[in-house]
Amino acid sequence: MCPRAFRQKAKVTWIMRGPWFLRYVLDEEGGQLCRQLGESQGVEFITSDEVQKFTRNNGRFVAETVNGRKVDFDLLTYGVGLDYYTEPVRKEVEIKSGIVTDAKLRTSAADAYAAGDIAVFYDLMVERHNQMGTWDNAEAHGRVAARNMAGADEDFFDVPTYTTTMFGSTLAVMGVTPDVQPDLESVRTFSFEEKFYRKLFFKDDRLVGAIMIGPPKGRKKLIEIMRSRRKIERPKQELLDPANLKD
Ligand SMILES: Cc1cc2nc3c(=O)[nH]c(=O)nc-3n(C[C@H](O)[C@H](O)[C@H](O)COP(=O)(O)OP(=O)(O)OC[C@H]3O[C@@H](n4cnc5c(N)ncnc54)[C@H](O)[C@@H]3O)c2cc1C
After folding, report:
1. What is the pLDDT along the chain (247 residues), one digit of tens a residue?
2. Ligand 1 atom nearest 162 alpha carbon
3. Which end of the chain has a smaller Cβ tally under 10 Å, C or N?
4. d(C-alpha 63, C-alpha 140), whole Å
């Protein structure tokens, strides 16, 4: 069943530890808009709380939270986080949270490469080691690692992107965001009525990251500007308007 059809039939409660969804990436207004989108589709949010106990009551299940809320449920979906499977190579290559590589995705062992979620790669975009967990990144890594294994000498350089549909809207995160690099300069626009939010991040007058909620118009152009690493000469606010992001 598609998520929308499921939500129309089932009562959905979302319990999260943080004060809003994606709290390390979104600011308060971005989080508030996500909540508004969910609530408009009947989702109940319980924030700044977490489940401490599951019990049974008359054949149904009950989740009890630290703050004393009780939620009846028939079906539970639980985000447990990630544990990277590095055991088979722990002795052979340098490991941090995953397998450490340079910008060419080479590990510390000769002729051994790492790509995708497992790779803690030197990211030329943020100029430090980074680890991603997205389809786009895994695919792009795979291509570079494969070419280098076949004899090329390519650096991996890409604008990280994450896109997901969410409560009839779209959330797109691109490039560097404050969870990776705090103290970035930013400009922002949002409208709760129009269900629209955009925030752009700059470093040394270069566009380095963006968050978009709502129609992702101009997304490609923003990625192109980030990839070019060119200095932004025009007022930065202008880049918030999709009308200014045509090819
Ligand atoms: C619930 C969920 C939702 C997600 N939603 C999104 C989303 O909306 N957008 C997005 O961009 N990303 C999303 N992701 C993340 C995305 O799925 C991953 O970033 C991507 O799949 C990583 O690709 P990978 O090739 O690095 O690793 P994987 O896809 O994990 O592939 C690793 C493969 O290696 C195999 N393997 C492991 N050990 C061995 C072994 N010893 N021998 C042989 N094979 C082995 C595994 O079985 C697996 O098939 C989501 C992930 C999850 C779990």
Report:
1. 566 666 667 899 999 999 999 999 999 999 999 999 999 999 999 999 999 999 998 888 999 999 999 999 999 998 878 889 999 999 999 999 999 999 999 999 999 999 999 999 999 887 889 898 888 899 999 999 999 999 999 999 999 888 889 899 999 999 989 888 888 999 999 999 999 999 999 999 999 999 999 999 999 999 999 999 899 999 999 999 999 987 6
2. 11
3. C
4. 40
Q: Is the CB of 85 under 6 A from ligand 1?
A: yes
The interface predicted TM-score (ipTM) is: 0.97
Domains of the chain, earliest start first: 3-73 (3.50.50.60), 87-149 (3.50.50.60), 161-240 (3.30.390.30)
Q: Phi and psi dihedrals of 80, rounded to 5?
A: -100, -5
User: What spacing in Å lies between the alpha carbon of 47 and ligand 1's midpoint?
Assistant: 28
Measure the CA–CA gap between 153 and 23, rounded to whole angstroms: 38
Q: Is 197 in the pocket of ligand 1 (CB under 6 A)?
A: no
Q: What are phi and psi of 74, to 5 degrees?
A: -105, -30
Cβ(139) to ligand 1 under 6 A? no
